[in-house]
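Q: I have 302 residues here and want to know how they pack in 3D. Can you give me a structure?
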Amino acid sequence: MSQLRINDLIPDNRLVTSGHLACPGCAAPLGMKLALNALGPNTIVVMPASCFTIIAGPWPQSSLQVPVFHTAFATGPAVASGVRAALDMQGQHDTNVLVWVGDGGTFDIGLQSLSGAAERNENMIYVCYDNEAYMNTGIQRSSATPWGAWTTTTPAQFPEASPKKDMLGIMVAHGIPYAATATPAYPADLVAKITKAKAMHGMRFIHLLSPCPPGWKCGDDEGLELARMAVQNRVFPMLEVEHGTRWRLTMEHAGDPVEPYLRRQGRFRHLSAEQVTHIQAQIDVRWQQLMRRMEAEALASV
């Protein structure tokens, strides 16, 4: 029997074409391709300043075969709210509004407009493709940068001193209909979550881990493998949350040690054994907190 191909499971709508401007090994175009495969051509993309505003290509050329609104860094959800309102006034309620933005425009610069849209429960799908720094402008740290990581603004002598912001927890606290984590390294899981989000109404938030080889200081062919490692060592649990309460893991997590994941990335090469142990301890604590939360909610629902 011939090996099953991903396109046998996930048909390609060809809404992301060749000729995009991503760096070799960038996971973001694969994430966009999978998202648009799930959403289909009746979609409008709102894209604040990020790597992807370059990747998509300058007007009038674009690698995306759907309408794209390029917006200012802080205004993605605000613009998407206006697009949604205009579509609804025209009776186009079935057109998807997709906000596609990096971690800098989500965790930092765009947080106020995202929180406002979430509080209003605006009818949009918001995808944060998270490469854990401001990669487009030279690998500066963001509040998505993990503790201990090197960036150009957190050099090895003074690496990132703050833990990564819990963006999913922030969005869940708004009580939105749907929030989930995903990565292009597990394409069927990503497509299933986008498809589920598409069928819902209101604010839907997808936190997409998207490795960046230049920023992570890894090989062009290593990004997706590193993303799978991040899931299996519980750095990035794969889960979904409905209406702020129903937490559910969407795959098994092996609980592999974190050190191999760290050592394969130049941004962590300076870490001492003690620092690696500290990171492992923090991962274990967060995992136990997640398990206790899920157990408590399961008991409450009985």
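Q: Anything worth noting?
A: The chain has one domain: 6-300. The first helix runs from residue 6 to 9.
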